[in-house]
């Protein structure tokens, strides 16, 4: 075929729905330099912030999340769903993709459904142990499902092609080194670093718990803290550290997460699937506080993969700063004083990491496109 192949990535709304497919898109572009990449995403600001500098085509969709238990929102959801499907149908008729990859969330639905309807190859990325509603709905409309861990396989029982590939991480995570990370954030190289992060949107309860612990953390000799607060809490978190003896660096957001993890000796984080893929790709020990308000508590299921293998400790988020600080403090203070425990956890994390997942998924995506005749050759 003479036409330049178009690869569509469908999803958005969080970093976890964007960073893994960005890694796959880069791997496809490396193998097929003439390929075109388009992201069908949401109108949320996080999508614009992450995608605007990539050089890929960005197509925000007028889609809405399905708010279960709030029936008064259903009519607007249905109207947006129908309009988004029609827009995808028109777009794909005018410019037929070689492949559509759903990356999670409500924005993945219309492009995957319309691609399947048109006979275009489709696949899903499912990094969480427990698939979300969108992926459960779309699985029967997808030629392949790529999962991060074996624990996800039972959720797709009966699907003809479920592959354990790991969760794609960007190339930065394969090259990151501690010295560079320390320099990027202006940290002290002679000190160990506790990294605190709530992922791309921040996590208020984590912020509150760690801020409440700053006196105890300051007493841990030879440590410093790199705190990624999220934009909403940045001012209050920065103020809490401003006149405190704890050696600290506070940033609202960073697109240098690979450097932040490379600088870290211990991580406090949520348990989003892409965050765990990044943590394990670099082999960092972690204390995980899964987000507590999801109906299926899927972050706890994600965290259990690491805790059961000795790569992380679990602290359940009680949505109470004092209770969280007590539970988190017990784990942090014990680990910060036990170098051998940190080393064992780091090794367990490295064994879980699959830093080549982007390449594996990219080859599988290209294979599906080749089988459909939409791609004739690629560079492996």
Overview features:
single chain; 380 residues; Rossmann fold; 2 domains; seven-stranded parallel beta sheet; six-stranded parallel beta sheet
Describe this protein's structure.
With 380 residues, this protein is α/β, with parallel strands linked by helices. The protein has two domains: 181 residues, Rossmann fold (3-Layer(aba) Sandwich), CATH 3.40.50.2000; 181 residues, Rossmann fold, CATH 3.40.50.2000. It has a seven-stranded parallel beta sheet, with helices on both faces. The relative contact order is 0.14. The model has no long low-confidence stretch (mean pLDDT 94).
Give, in order, the helices and strands.
EHEHEHEHEHEEHHEHHEHEHEHEHEHHH
What shape does the CA trace take?
A: globular
Quantity of strands, as a count: 13
Strand order across the largest sheet: 3-2-1-4-5-6-7
What is the CATH topology descriptor of the largest domain?
Answer: Rossmann fold
Strand content: 15-25%
How many alpha or pi helices? Answer: 16
Which spans have pLDDT < 50 for at least 5 consecutive residues?
none
Largest sheet: 7 strands, parallel
What Rg do the Cα atoms give?
21 Å
Number of discrete domains: 2
CATH class category label of the largest domain? Alpha Beta
What is the percent of helical residues?
40-55%
Look at the structure and name the CATH superfamily of the largest domain.
Glycogen Phosphorylase B
């Amino acid at each position: 075929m003479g036409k330049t192949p178009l690869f569509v990535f469908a999803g958005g709304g969080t970093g976890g729905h964007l960073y893994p497919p960005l890694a796959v898109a880069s791997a496809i572009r490396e193998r097929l330099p003439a390929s075109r990449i388009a992201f069908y995403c949401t109108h949320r600001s996080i999508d614009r912030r992450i995608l605007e500098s990539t050089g890929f085509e960005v197509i925000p969709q007028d889609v809405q999340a399905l708010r279960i238990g709030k029936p008064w929102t259903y009519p607007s959801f249905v109207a947006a769903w129908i309009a988004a499907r029609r827009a995808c149908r028109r777009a794909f008729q005018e410019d037929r993709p070689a492949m559509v990859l759903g990356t999670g969330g409500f924005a993945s639905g219309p492009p995957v459904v319309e691609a399947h309807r048109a006979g275009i190859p489709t696949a899903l990325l499912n990094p969480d142990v427990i698939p979300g509603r969108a992926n459960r709905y779309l699985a029967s409309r997808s030629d392949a499902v790529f999962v991060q861990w074996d624990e996800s396989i039972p959720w797709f029982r009966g699907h003809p092609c479920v592959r354990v590939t790991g969760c794609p991480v960007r190339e930065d995570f394969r090259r990151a080194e501690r010295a560079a990370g320390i320099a990027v954030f202006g940290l002290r190289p002679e000190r160990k670093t506790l990294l605190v992060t709530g992922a791309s949107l921040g996590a208020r309860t984590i912020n509150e718990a760690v801020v409440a612990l700053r006196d105890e953390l300051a007493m841990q000799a030879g440590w410093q803290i790199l705190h990624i607060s999220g934009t909403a809490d940045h001012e209050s978190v920065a103020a809490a550290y401003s006149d405190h003896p704890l050696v600290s660096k506070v940033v609202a957001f960073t697109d240098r997460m690979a450097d932040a993890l490379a600088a870290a000796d211990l991580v406090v984080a949520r348990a989003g699937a892409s965050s765990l893929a990044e943590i394990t790709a670099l082999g960092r020990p972690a204390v995980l506080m899964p987000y507590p308000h999801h109906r299926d508590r899927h972050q706890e299921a994600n965290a259990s993969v690491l805790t059961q293998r000795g790569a992380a400790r679990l602290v359940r988020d009680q949505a109470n700063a004092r209770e969280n600080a007590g539970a988190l403090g017990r784990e942090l203070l014990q680990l910060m004083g036990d170098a051998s425990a940190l080393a064992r956890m780091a090794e367990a994390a490295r064994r879980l990491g699959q830093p080549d997942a982007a390449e594996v998924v990219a080859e599988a995506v290209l294979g599906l496109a080749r089988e459909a005749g939409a791609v004739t050759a690629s560079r492996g």
